[in-house]
Design brief:
The complex is a heterodimer of chains A (about 220) and B (about 220).
Chain A (H helix, E strand, L loop, with lengths): L8 H36 L5 H13 L3 H16 L5 H26 L3 H9 L4 H31 L11 H12 L2 H30 L9
Helix pairs in contact in A: 1-4, 1-7, 2-4, 3-4, 4-6, 5-6, 6-8, 7-8
Chain B lengths: L11 H33 L4 H16 L2 H14 L6 H26 L3 H9 L4 H16 L1 H14 L11 H12 L2 H30 L8
Helix pairs in contact in B: 1-2, 1-4, 1-8, 2-4, 3-4, 4-6, 4-7, 5-6, 7-9, 8-9
The chains are: A mainly alpha (about 220), B mainly alpha (about 220).
Chain lengths: ~220, ~220
Amino acid sequence: MRYTAFTSYDIVLLAQGLGVSLALFLATTIIGLLLGSLWAIIRFYRVPVLMQIVTVFAELLKNSPVLVQLFLVFFGLPAFARLNVTPVEAAVITLSGNTAAFVYVIAVSAIESIGRDQIEAARVSGLSRWQVLRHIIAPQAMAFAIGPLTGLLVNQLQVTSLISVIGVVDLTKIGNILNLRTLKPFIVWAIVGGLYYVMAKLVAFGGATLEKRLRAHTAWKGL
Amino acid sequence: MTFDLTILAPHIPFLVKGAVLTAEACVLALAGSLCIGTIVAALVTSASPVLSRIAYIYVDLFRNIPFIVQLFFFFYGLPEIGIYVNAFATGVIALSIAGGAFTSDVIRSGILSIDPGILEAAEVSGLSKPTIFRKIVMPIALRTSVRPLGSVFINLILTSSILSTITLNELTGSAKIVASDTFRPFEIYAVLLVAYASLTYLVSLAIGALHRYLNRDQTEAA
């Protein structure tokens, strides 16, 4: 016997998928932001060897499909290095790395937008390297980067849908399950798409609010 | 475990077949998304508030919903309304529609960057609106947006790997088959990663050259 009708339990399923998608998105965003900024700092201080590795690695990650990266980590690593990776671990590794590669590009251009003369002036005034990074570079770079970062995060939110392919039960996977059970693709995929749309809008709204706050000091206040 | 690429040698023709399918899908989708993008950009920048509103909603929706969800919507949904097309056609349609949303944004900003004086001059010269659009607006807008269009195209190539989820054996799909045949997933996916990266690098070089060629008579160095 087949139960093709929608039940109230489907809402729980959808909510569960939404939770998994959101949790993975938040986790990989935080890891990606930290990792990407670290790479940018490596590049800023021109650390030899490491800098070249980071550049090549980021280029590779940026210019290849996330799906292939996912397969490489999920199917490749266990076969190659005899490491057991669960779908969720593979998803976290891949998405964090991918986000980091894009964050790296944004962070590098944000740091470059500041100008070395400011940094030299700060160093001459007796600030330590860490203080320069903390009080001179970071605040200005953040204000510069927040716009592109918001765009990136909206994009990365959509990229999380790919992890359903390796078996993570996220929102898209739930959509697939519901679709195969109810055979009503239009309703199911419209609901799933709608949920993603709302999440993307929330991320964009959050980014815009944050940008307004970070740029408050440069805003035109009137005469 | 050793990293042995020679194991892939017998499977190269099969992979090349997949790459050709990827190329076909990408070129068709590029043409499709350019058509859709141009029309939508014309609607967004048009004087009619209703049309520009509708076009804006289209762009907003398809930019903010994951491609894989759109793809499943079409793949499972089209047969429901009596349209039976194969996976390749479905993939190209979905790619064109999603790509069209991004393309229209690029072309729109190209159109908006045109100096209004040029349009006024054209109107004063007595050119009709369609003529102005075809002969003046589009050439300028397309020429200035070659580079951003190129990055949309590169994104399209990367996105086309998702078509492997609807049973279409393009490059990623064939690689999946080879990986399960040889049980050497690490080698095959590593090669695939480098292949995609070099392919998109070549495309970006070509786009840079095209941009310089189209803007060769421009005096300011871009």
